[in-house]
Structure formats: C-alpha cells, structure tokens
Amino acid sequence: MRIVIENGHLVIDAAEIAPLLDLDVAGFRQMMGAGHILTRTERGEGDDEGNLRLTLTSPMWRLRLTCAGDGEVLKRSRVRLTAAPTGSPSRSARDSDGSTRGTLG
C-alpha cells in the first residue's frame, strides 16, 4: 500500500482504505463527506524525520498508517473503538498482523 503525496497533500485510494474501516467505497466516501471519518497527519521529528503518520478515525475504528517520505506504508495498525455489531464473530481489536491489541468487553 502506498499513500500518494501531491502538492504537499496526502491522497489515499478509497478502495484500499475502506475495507480497513469495514466499509465499502461508497460508504467510505459518504462518511468522509459527512465528517464521520476524521483524519490527522503528523510529520516525523528526530529519528522519525522524513516519515509521516496518517490516522483515520471512524466511529468504529482507528486506522494508523506510518509512511516513509515517499508514501510507502511502513507500518499499519487498526484498533476497534466500539464493540462489534451483534453476531460478529470477534470482539477483539486486531493489528494488521492479526495480533490482538486490546479486548473490548
């Protein structure tokens, strides 16, 4: 996955990001337009100089992408912020490698 940097702005492919927030592309665009998905960009300092971190927060998930200066995603984490919908097989927040980052109870 890669984040495109155009004129100092980050451009993300909705088709890649939407599934990470348990959304389809149309739902992702609708939630972004309505302000239900918040974004935050941080620039690295010191040892992290040249890297950046993009955080997307939806009502259910916080997705954090740590990227090299050219937009290559170096690390990805995803944490569930709310309980899974009724009938969901899992209530654990899982990182991109499948490891549990926290359990909602």
TrEMBL record:
**Name assigned to this protein:** Uncharacterized protein
Please list where the region (Disordered) is annotated: 78-105
Q: Which InterPro entries match?
A: DUF6522
Pfam families the record matches:
DUF6522
